[in-house]
Amino acid sequence: MASVWAELRRRNVVKVAVAYAxxxxxxxxxxxxxxxxxxAPEWIMQVFTFLVIVGFPLALIFAWAYELTPEGLKKEKxxxxxxxxxxxxxxxxxxxxxxxxxxxxxxxxxxxFVLDPSRDAELVQATKEAVTxxxxxxxxxxxxDKSIVxxxxxxxxxxxxxxxxxxxxxxxxxxxLAKIPELRVISRSSAFSIKxxxxxxxxxxxxxxxxxxxxxxxxxxxxxxxxxxQLIDAQSDTHLWSAxxxxxxDDIFAIQDEIAAEVVNALKITLLGEAIPKARETTPKAYAxxxxxxxxxxxxxxxxxxxxxxLLHQALAIDPGFVPAWDxxxxxxxxxxxTGLIGxxxxxxxxxxxxxxxxxxxxxxxxxxxxxGWIAMMYDRDLDTSAAYFRHARALAPTDAIVVRNIVIFAxxxxxxxxxxxLGKQSLTLNPLSPGVHGNLAMAYxxxxxxxxxxxxxxxxLDLSPNHDWALTKLARVHLLQGRPxxxxxxxxKIGLQRRKLYVLPMAYYDLGQAEASVAALAALKxxxxxxxxxxxxxxxxxxxxxxxxxxxxxxxxxxSQFIRWSMxxxxxxxxxxxxxxxxxxxxxxxxxxxxxxxxxx
Length: 602
Prior knowledge:
This protein is α/β, with parallel strands linked by helices. The chain is built from 26 helices and 8 strands. Strands 3, 4, 5, 6, 7 and 8 form a 6-stranded mixed sheet that branches. The longest helix is centred in the first third of the chain and has 58 residues, at 86-143.
């Protein structure tokens, strides 16, 4: 055996084996990178590897049987031992092996420290893209190509103050298209949140999960208006249709009708109704005042609400029959009542007056039915009437973002939490960039104990609007339910509206064991807001286990001038009251017994 090993070494068979193994490994590694780059079929790599493996024993046999001499390659048996130069060949093989080893180690280092991280990053990115693509495809499967966002038209007028007009035209087109049940139209709040952002069409469409984008510009000069509109297929980023309208302001409604008709034709929508909806007409002056009022109402400040109120009343003085102005007035007064800018009772009474005026003029205006359903639910506390209004609104406009949003709250108030979650998801498809819509879904999640999903939804809302008080309040409450009072306190400190902050602080301090701070915060809440926030005070007492005090404050909510969050009956924050007989008595007293809620149909 020793003589055989010595002969193998003399003939350089061992060195050939080492050299071949290193070169073969290096060739296979390089081929595994090169072949896929050139999109070579998989079988080519398999054949190449097979040939390298088969070549190994052949190389050894060749090294045993032949020797390289100064005269060329000869059979080993024909070479005189005295003239053999295998020792010289062996030295050359040593140099070759060293060189190949250096090359192999260099490649190994490059692969390990350069290519591997890159491949890992590519794998992670590929995985993300696959998940995103799957989610996108799922969304597309739901909406197909019958979805659209109307972006705020660009104000091309010399007067920057005319932006209210370009924004208004955009919103009116959006509302017009939203009347087509076969078309999913992104709501105003999501569409206008894109305004001023330097985003391309595919990115906007991806954020809003739509297949089509309508954009344009408006130039207004005196009584003349030029509107340019273009419909874009988001996936291919190509134009489906475009047009320019150069008309007088008297033709503004005809332009809107024509644009809506062109969108329907371009998207090949088969209408189930009789015809394409038409824009509501009024005089140019009344319309300009209405658009200005609409613009200020969206700013949602005490001064802007007052300004909007004045402008809308001016519009109605010119044309008392212009229904959208009555609708907008009702919305303004409800929003002021909800935020405490005016009295709860005053806000809802005024809103009802405006809503009924609108309903007299147009019995089929879906948003007015939705508004009256909201008033019946939140102010009259009449669930049967509320359900009837919401049913009608849903039948008239099943894909209207405002209608669906209000019905989500109604489902929450009935305790139909799984239905509220599904409706909340539908609401998100219509208004994906609305903090409030994400917040409504979060409420439903929190009531069924899906706290991580509730937290995610609220963090999404706050990504969209970092200072959104309502979302901050709900996130703090979710943290309390999670048993994280320190996180709840940190969020509560960011809440701007004092009433909401003082509602959260006593509960957070209580859970942190800071009794004095909790008592002081609750005292401040009572001192400043006892007249319209009795339900909040009752909740704080319930959270702290002070059952008698909680029922005392709940009894105050029976006063109709008090705001009450009717979903409280399904809110875990009140769980300390559930075993007390007074809980069912109170539910029955305010018309929210379990039996009654089950009977409501909507």
